[in-house]
Write a structure and sequence with these properties.
Radius of gyration: 19 Å
Low-confidence stretches: none
Number of domains: 2
Helix content: 25-40%
CATH topology of the largest domain: Fructose-1,6-Bisphosphatase, Chain A, domain 1
Order of helices and strands: HHEEHEEEEHEEEEEHEHEHEEH
Bound molecules: 6-O-phosphono-alpha-D-fructofuranose
Distance between the termini: 56 Å
CATH superfamily of the largest domain: Fructose-1,6-Bisphosphatase, subunit A, domain 1
Mean pLDDT: 92
Number of strands: 15
Largest sheet: 8 strands, mixed
Shape: globular
Strand order of the largest sheet: 4-3-5-6-7-8-9-10
Length: about 325
């Protein structure tokens, strides 16, 4: 009978020596937020939480009630934890300070509370993405530069997938580990220890509707993925859910690549660097893969704006390297 690990016990037993209690507890807090959001998400069709919240977020997108709820829940659980000095969210234009009355800690949290929220009303899997940095200055005032750090400096990253089951997948630099929520127990139980990208890859994920908007190099690369050009690509299927966390998770389990290239009217693509591409790039490298903007590692990009976007190719290194090769030939 293999050991039954709750996420709390696994975090305690697998923390890097350098991690302080506050870091360990921060991961607990995120797991708690995930349980609460999962509870709401699984009832989205029953409770009047579907539909538009009426507000427009920083991205200019209509906010769904569930992403407003998820954004507030993560902030409220973490703001008084004493582990953070600042937070940044996809749903908030500016960084979020820790309320004066609460103790501050030496970490900074970046998160997309509910990625893929346009899928809420059609019951497609959605996800939360998070990354944790060590604050740069020790006065813990919580400033923008504490979150505007390259993904290479993340101390932890992960996502929650609200799908047929709720899973929390994270890494603190010692491999990628997945936990599945047992709704009866209310516990995340270890279900996928040391997740590694399998080879050969099974899927490629891209929105083919945008083919005419891509550069000739990216169009050639996509034809390569389909078995064209020199015919050296592995035989794969196309899978594109329109929910980054769901596509990423499936590709992590089966091998594959997710691509959101630059377009004529979106020179930086659509995916946000700080709280989407960066944390997922950290995870994919921990799982033996690679993430690029088409010219170099996502993890080496120095963010300059909270909500900046980046072209993204993420998955098996062999497939991402080919994307860089096609782009380089065009440059
Ligand atoms: P498109 C959701 O809004 C999201 O940011 C990702 O979750 C998803 O992969 C992508 O956008 C889908 O974008 O342009 O293909 O609909």
């Amino acid at each position: 009978m293999s050991k039954i690990y709750t996420i709390e016990r696994f975090i305690l037993e697998h923390q890097p020596e350098s991690a302080k209690g506050e870091f360990t507890n921060l991961l607990y807090d995120i797991a708690l937020a995930a349980k609460i959001i999962a509870h709401k998400t699984n009832r989205a069709g029953l409770v009047d939480i579907l539909g538009r919240a009426g507000a427009i977020n920083i991205q200019g997108e209509e906010q769904q009630k569930l992403d407003v709820y998820a954004d507030e829940m993560i902030f409220r659980i973490c703001d008084h934890s004493g582990r953070l000095c600042v937070m940044a969210s996809e749903e908030q234009e500016e960084i979020m300070h820790i309320p004066e009355q609460f103790e501050k800690g030496s970490y900074a949290l970046v998160y997309d509370p509910l990625d893929g929220s346009s899928n809420i009303d059609v019951n497609v899997s959605i996800g939360t993405i998070f990354g944790i940095y060590r604050a740069l200055d020790w006065d813990l005032r919580g400033r923008e530069e504490d979150v505007l750090q390259p993904g290479r400096d993340l101390v932890a990253a992960g996502y929650v997938l609200y799908g047929s089951s709720t899973m929390l997948v994270y890494s603190t630099g010692q491999g990628v580990h997945g936990f599945t929520l047992d709704p009866e127990l209310g516990e995340f139980l270890l279900s996928h220890q040391n997740m590694r990208l399998p080879a050969p890859p099974a899927y490629y994920s891209i929105n083919h509707a945008y083919f005419q908007r891509w550069s000739p190099a990216v169009q050639s690369y996509v034809r390569w993925l389909q078995g064209g050009e020199d015919g050296s690509a592995p035989v794969m299927s196309s899978r594109y859910i329109g929910s980054l966390v769901a596509d990423f998770h499936r590709n992590l389990l089966r091998g594959g690549i997710f691509c959101y290239p630059a377009e004529e009217n979106k020179p930086n693509g659509k995916i946000r660097l700080l709280y989407e591409a960066g944390p997922l790039a950290y995870l994919i490298e921990q799982a033996g893969g690679y993430a690029s903007n088409g010219r170099g590692p996502i993890l080496d990009i120095q963010p300059t704006d909270l909500h900046q976007r980046t072209p993204l190719f993420i998955g098996n290194r062999s497939l991402v390297d080919m994307a860089e090769k096609f782009v380089a030939e065009e440059d």
